[in-house]
């Protein structure tokens, strides 16, 4: 019998249809939803109509400026229509041929005609349409989004900043003329979420399936304040020295050194102007993470069961060599599919993701959090922020005695790694061997760790 | 360091202010929120203004009929004002003296004047007001709620049905005259949830704290369709025979007998008219629950990690006698506070509640579910539906070879227990001893199990 997480209860496929003027954060929301659902093993993909339009129109130069978006520009209308149709066609193909579960149509979809058309195609294909509108009249928010366009929109990569600003503003005006917002009366039969000024006011209509309600809850919890997240494994433990996994050992002498140095690493990562930034510290319930947090000067320290290390069940307290000898088949099965493999009486990486889900939701709500946890748990959290595929995440190297700082940005997450320069054993086990790597003291980054999006400073 | 669940991140106190005409399900929603939050260890209490009003006015006979609720009835207005003031005063006292976290003011609060007054008092006491309106124009829903009044409202206990109906309808009319619904423009500075026709349309405004967002999510997931929930432990296992806890043993011979008989018990519980009701079966990932489900004719069977038995950590596979001998201090500590006690390397009842929370949320969304799980997990699920206090829930007797059927009703949950009449060992350990009870074969119900609200048929 397959094991179900809360996300797999129904046999529902959802098409999230974004709605809103340009510069309302639609693409950002769409990409976050895809990242979140993918992390939960729900097959999701974003279909950005702008990308299709650029493929079609940009080589001809037709979309070089805002006039392309005028409803009076017949050529523009034709290209844009073609782009939408291609995106929808690809999405429906993806649902059908690749068993997609949540597809996102990332476009303005500002007219009721357009939305009716998407609705009809969804219904024909037995896909639930969920409209997600980002509506905004907060001048400052819009201004900020327009300013970001130079750095985020592929349309203005090689263009002058001033041109980008004025042209983009013009483009928005063209859309405004024809924009029909989602309305509780007119659209009362649609399933929709309407976010007003990010999520200060939210209107939900006919949210029925569990999958829809998860998307709603996630979107409700997003905020756009700038913040950072710090991640660290506990300092080297006595079990690390003997190569044993699991347990609840104390820090080794070098582990204590790391704990003492950690406050300094955090200050270094904050930079000279932000030395007084107040962090909240989250640890697991195990001694080695709490000991590692003990010298941090921050008042708010919370310990979470959900941050405890992967439960190795019957193998708790054993070395990899012992596991290989005593449970050779399990040892091989784990190497073959480390994400799914569940220790006898213990957990798999997938199990950790399920118990981490509320932690991720809370992280989305919070501002500056420093998490001190364990190798497998840290891999899962890192995978969420860095969009690392599940088959790779259990093999990432997250060395001891290294502080990782994540800075979520609109379309990627910046990563910095601050090394303590305190030697530690390696706890990294290569596939197909029970041997652990050389001691690296947090001073080396493995090549497999330089994943897409990991812009290690 | 105390262990935090997701519910304890902030130091926020919330006053949920119900808003809506009579017969809109306000009290039902209020009581469900209290039950849910209490189960999550969040101290919550409902203050029903009707109860205060009855204490003041009923002895004088002033509130004998609907005219009491006319805005023109000066005596009525005076009594009702006094009732509201007493309820608010008691609630504020409860926040202050008893460290209450979520208080619910269950009253109509239909005018903006009244709401402004509550708002002011909340702000003076540093309590976050969250307005929760139930708005309804679905004639059938209202009719059903009005019909329920005879059975649910203490105002009509000794009254004739017809009088109750017409009087209550009149009362609603008095409120309608002065009703001001929550409005996105006028009330834009308030935190509010507006449920329109249960939750087919939901408006959220300024939901900011985590606690508020949990309440919103829970309320969004409630439905009012009638349904039942069936609970069963797995059949007797080989470990049960030897008195060992944990593990992943097979069913014993008698356990298999129970598995074979379970389909018949379910049919019996459905009654002659509902033999074709389709159930969904949920099990844990452990063999004994899946074996127990194997003869059930229902197509949809899901296995959940979150339904696995309490993890006994280092004590997994031991008998209570062995635990008492090897870990005498732990053994005593567990008896002293069984809800909080966490096995070395394992879990506490509180930990189970945290991992069951998504299961409970999903149960609220679903219709007919049969859950086959384990003693401790079943106690926690039962405690949620039956509002059993945490200190009692780990001591409830849930015998083997017994099917429990829960039928949630507006103000209570009906329970029936259907016994298989197949002998099984008792797995019930009394406080202060390592001995298990006598074999009861699911044929006896312990007195301590007859808890308030458990209307065992």
Automatic annotation (TrEMBL), chains A, B:
What is an example of a Pfam family matching this protein?
Answer: His_Phos_1
Q: Which residues bind substrate?
A: 233-240, 288
Q: Which SUPFAM superfamilies match?
A: P-loop containing nucleoside triphosphate hydrolases (SSF52540), Phosphoglycerate mutase-like (SSF53254)
Domain 6-phosphofructo-2-kinase residues, every copy: 6-226
Alphabetically, which GO biological process terms does the record hold?
A: fructose 2,6-bisphosphate metabolic process; fructose metabolic process
Q: What is its EC number?
A: 3.1.3.46
Q: Tell me, what is one Gene Ontology molecular-function annotation carried by this entry?
A: ATP binding
Compositional bias ranges of the Polar residues kind: 433-445
Q: Name one GO cellular component term.
A: cytosol
Q: Name the UniProt key words of this record, in alphabetical order.
A: ATP-binding, Hydrolase, Nucleotide-binding
Q: Where is this region: Disordered?
A: 429-457
Q: Which family does it belong to?
A: In the C-terminal section; belongs to the phosphoglycerate mutase family.
Q: From the Swiss-Prot or TrEMBL record, give the protein name.
A: fructose-2,6-bisphosphate 2-phosphatase
Provide the species name: Candida tenuis (strain ATCC 10573 / BCRC 21748 / CBS 615 / JCM 9827 / NBRC 10315 / NRRL Y-1498 / VKM Y-70)
